[in-house]
Amino acid sequence: MGTLILLSLIVCPILYINVGPALGAEQLDTLKLLGIIAACSAAWCFIVGELTGNNSQMDKLWSLLPIAYTWIIAVRGGLAPRLVVMAVLATLWGARLTFNFARKGAYKLKFWEGTEDYRWSIVRSGPAFKGRRWAWMLFDLLFISIYQNALVLMTTFPALVSMHSSAPFGWIDAVAAALMAFFIVWETTADEQQWAFQTRKWAMIGAGQKLEDLPEPYCKGFNTTGLWSRSRHPNYFAEQGTWISFYIFSVGAGIGIFNWSVIGALLLVVLFLGSSALAEQISGSKYPLYADYCSKVPKFFPGRKYRA
Q: Cα–chain-centroid distance for residue 52?
């Protein structure tokens, strides 16, 4: 957590000052508005998370905020074709993620309720926080609430820097749109394969069968089929690809091949390195064959097919 926050505090200003572009008055005004929304979201996540003990408040908003941010930018940018395409793709991405989280019971009529991501309870009970309520509150405030809200806002910076571009929608934008659409489809496929696997596995366990007695591949406990047979985290691979593709739109806008709006995509990659490590630590502790799976299948980029 500390490394990510420190990296953001150091790298963001350096990139803005030395790489450019500088934001115009209307862009700064838009950033101020988005910052207010992000600050309100962070306050909500922290207060509600602490009061209810459900620390998935930001998880619920993660898929919704980029939709709001990109459409605000698009409207303030005069609904330029590039901005509209970016907002539409962000909406498709958000709809997919919202649906996937909703079917796990995350959203309720009372928005602060719902199923919490199981990983938070594991992190809370870890040695860093066990018996140290103040340490968890600090983690909740700085990382879950403030940092993650800031990161989500930063992923939409390519739209902000492209807000008043005079460059027409061109082939670079078309490539960015095609790549982003591809990764959204890839992630949707990975989600569906994982959902089908876990639903079937738990249905058999619920019917009284033991995990080790289930038929292949369910007896392993983790998914090794479809995209999951070639990548340990095909959903994370696609998520990173989605926002790297989103950054390419800023190149199409004529901002430059490398500009400071890349910070969101870069920090997202760093975040998923940590998130995937946690997920694999949990899976490795639960399933004896998971280490063998890790030794044979790449973490993110698809590679050779898993052979038991």
A: 23
For 181-201, what is each residue's pLDDT tens digit? 999 999 999 999 999 999 999
- Tracing tokens 């392993």 back to the chain, one arrives at 220
Nearest 5°: CA angle at 162, between 159 and 166?
150
Q: Which two tokens stand for residue 13?
A: 């200003």
Q: What is the rounded end-to-end Cα distance, in angstroms, of the chain?
A: 36
Distance CA 149, CA 40 (A): 10
Residues counted in the chain: 308
Q: Where are the domains of the chain?
A: 2-296
Burial of 4 (0-12, 13-18, 19+ CB in 10 A): middle
Q: What is the rounded distance in angstroms from the CA atom of residue 226 to the CA atom of residue 217?
A: 11
pTM: 0.91
* pLDDT for residue 224: 96
DSSP element (H, E) containing 49:
helix 25-52
